[in-house]
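Handout, section B. The chain below has 97 residues.
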Amino acid sequence: MTQTGSSKNRFGLHTRLSLGVAAVVLLATFAIATFALHLVKSNMRASIAAEELARVSAIADAIDQKFDSRRILLQTFGGSVKAQDFQADAALQAFLG
C-alpha cells in the first residue's frame, strides 16, 4: 500500500490541538501587549501635555511678574521726576544720567 501525497502531510490530533492552543496564546499575548502599549502611550501623552502646560504657565507667570515690576518701577520713576519739577532739560538729563 502506498500513501498518497496528502496523507503524508496529515498531523495528528495532538499536534493540531497543540498548534491551535499555541496560536490562541500567541494571539492573546499580542492583543494584551497591543492594549498595554496603547494605554502607556495615552498616559505618556497626557503626562507630557500636563508637564508642558505647567511649564508654559510658569513662564507666563514669570513674564507677568516682570511686567508688573517694571510697571511699578516706571510709576515710581515717573512720580520722582514729577516731584522734582524740572524746569530745564539739562537738569532732567543730569537726573537721568
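Note. The chain has a mean pLDDT of 90. Compare this with the example in section A.
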